[in-house]
Structures are given as C-alpha cells and as structure tokens.
Amino acid sequence: MNIFYNKHIGDVLLITVKQTEGPFTYHREGDVVTIRQNDEIVGYNVYNVADLNIQTDGQVELNKERVAEINAFLETKGMSPLEVDLSPKFVVGHVDEMEKHPDADKLNVCQVNVGDEVLQIVCGAKNIAAGQNVVVAKVGAVMPSGMIIKDAELRGVPSSGMICSERELGLTDSEEKKGILVLDAAMTPGTDFFNQL
C-alpha cells in the first residue's frame, strides 16, 4: 500500500491498496471515492484532508504513528482502518543464482535472497553476477523518479522487484555510474538498505 498527497488537484490523499491496471469503477460517498476493479477495492481518493497537516507533495512517508493518525482521520470520513505494511521496501539482497534469460540476450534471471524469501528478478545490468549483495526495490517500493515497482513479466519471465543502480536510487546523477550498485559482502540480506547508509 502506498499513500500520496496531492495539493494541486484539491487537497487529496491518494491511497493505493493494490497495484493493478484498469479499467476501474468509482463510487463517491462524501469526501471518499472508492476505486474498484471488478468487486475488489484497489484504492481510495480522500478529499479535504488539510487537518492531517501533510507537509509534502507526493509520497507520504509512513511509520506507526503516521498510520495511526491517518487511520483516526479516515474514521471521521466513515472508512475502516487501513492495514499498512511498514516493512522496508529497499533491502539488501544476495544474488544466489543467475542464468541467462531464455528469450533475451541482454537479460539475466536472478534468484535473489532478501532475508525472508527468495525473489526472481529479471535484470539487464552488465555487471550483475551470482554471489553479489545488491539493493532490491521490492514490489510496492516507490522509486525517487515516482515509478512504483510492480510484479511484471519481462519477455515471458516473471519478475518480482528490481535490482537497483545508484542513479535509480537517487544517490548520484553521474552518467558514469552505470550498472547496479554492488554492496559489501558482509551486509545481511533483508536489512533496510537506507538504514545502512
């Protein structure tokens, strides 16, 4: 789940419950627009949220206190509390295995240990190799560019997450920093990458 604030379209909290493609249906009741795909709720737009005193325009950084504050506010709008996953979305991953993509010369299919699970991630970086520690943006992560990481298929192979470069993480704007960011081998898979800096 991701929450964004947009003051430019009218003091709106944009809540993404599930990343999916449309078509969608919309139902407005008071200040709350419920967004559905078929019968499943995939998001909400909540208007007139100035009382939340959100200072940023864009992604709202969430922690337990902020989620509790938002949920208390949403109750005043007649909504049920949100269940928010606060686990880190940018984590240290270890490339356990790597093999060539069966249908693309420049892509590799990697099995990446992120602590509590192994993710299959398709990666096109030239410097990727088995045995490396890397930064993984898990599904649901919001990149500095605003792109949201989703489950995908690349040339017919499922990919769950993204192995990141320094530029993609917003750590440099240098054109010379090509390829994925390779981390110290001592870093523990599954730990929050940004807490390691």
Can you tell me about this structure?
It is a single chain. The chain has 197 residues and is mainly β. The chain contains 1 helix and 14 strands. The strands form 3 sheets. A 6-stranded antiparallel sheet has the order 3-4-5-2-1-6, with no helix packed on it. Strands 7, 8, 9, 10, 13 and 14 form a 6-stranded antiparallel sheet that branches. The mean pLDDT is 93.
Q: In a nutshell, what does this entry contain?
A:
The protein has 197 residues and is mostly beta strands. It has one helix at residues 64-76; strands spanning 2-6, 12-16, 25-29, 32-37, 40-47, 58-59, 90-100, 108-113, 118-123, 133-137, 151-154, 157-160, 162-163, 182-183. Strands 3-4-5-2-1-6 form a six-stranded antiparallel β-sheet, with no helix packed on it. Strands 7, 8, 9, 10, 13 and 14 form a six-stranded antiparallel β-sheet that branches.
**Category from helices, strands and their pairing:** mainly beta
Biggest β-sheet description: 6 strands, antiparallel
Q: Strands across the major sheet, in which order?
A: 3-4-5-2-1-6
| Measured distance between first and last alpha carbons | 25 Å
- Helix and strand string, N-terminal first? EEEEEEHEEEEEEEE
Contiguous runs where pLDDT drops below 50 for at least 5 residues: none
Radius of gyration: 19 Å
Strand content: 35-45%
Number of strands: 14
Per DSSP, the total helix count is: 1
Helix content: under 10%
Which shape, going by the Cα principal axes?
Answer: elongated
Mean pLDDT: 93
